[in-house]
Amino acid sequence: MVWLGSASHPVDKAAAVALANSIRPWTPPAPAAGDPNAAPPPADPNAPPARPGVGVPVPVTNAPPEMQPPA
Predict the structure, then answer these.
(1) Rounded to whole angstroms, how far apart are CA atoms 5 and 53?
(2) Average pLDDT score, the chain
(3) What torsion, rounded to 10 degrees, do the Cα atoms 16, 22, 28, 30 define?
(4) Which of 25, 33, 47, 67 could form a disulfide with 63 if both were Cys (CB 3.0 to 4.6 A apart)?
(5) Radius of gyration, alpha carbons of the chain
(6) One matching Pfam family, short form (predicted)?
């Protein structure tokens, strides 16, 4: 809430400047460090299978004939 003052109740200019200069941006606290010896959480049984890595051959079972290697 901001009070702008009035003719009969003016705002103290020095107090307003001190208040404005005291405002700092809020920074959240750092997250708590986890226990390095704790076991990793169990895998989600409903998660999709992991994608193959780069350069890892992926088997193709339904390749069209024109994509087959030469005999």
Answers:
(1) 66
(2) 84
(3) -170
(4) 67
(5) 33
(6) FAP
Per-residue buried b or exposed e for 5-28, using 16+ beta carbons within 10 Å of the residue's own CB: eeeeeeeeeeeeeeeeeeeeeeee
Higher-pLDDT residue of 2 and 53 is 53
Judge contact between 4 and 11, C-beta under 8 A. yes
- Give residue 68's pLDDT: 79
- Closest to 16 (Cα-Cα) out of 33, 29, 4, 28: 4
Q: Which residues contact 14 (CB under 8 A, 6 or more apart)?
A: none
Gap between the Cα atoms of 71 and 39, Å rounded? 51
Integer Cα distance of 20 and 12 in angstroms: 12
Query: In the structure encoding, which two tokens stand for residue 10, read together?
Result: 């003016």
Query: Is the Cα torsion angle 60, 64, 65, 66 positive or negative in sign?
Result: negative
